[in-house]
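ok so I'm stuck.
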Amino acid sequence: MSKNLYVGNLSFSVTSERLREVFEEYGTVSSASVVTDRETGRSRGFGFVEMSDGAEAAINGLNGTDLEGRALTVNEARPRAERPSRGGGGRRDRY
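replied:
not stuck anymore, here's the structure
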């Protein structure tokens, strides 16, 4: 069973490819992605790694370690919280 990991406190220069390389030392990486800002395309300083095996070893081995000058935060990702929809809540014309 695969696990999705949250990776925080990333240096803004870390790429998805670099993130994959680091985590592949601990097991099989299904996907790795650094989250970027929609408007600027810059890294937001965190990302997610999905691992089919080795996730616990990666958490234990990488949490708190230095990557490009920053101490990583690595833990199991929590499900995304429900957010209220943005559509339809504004002013409505009445007929």
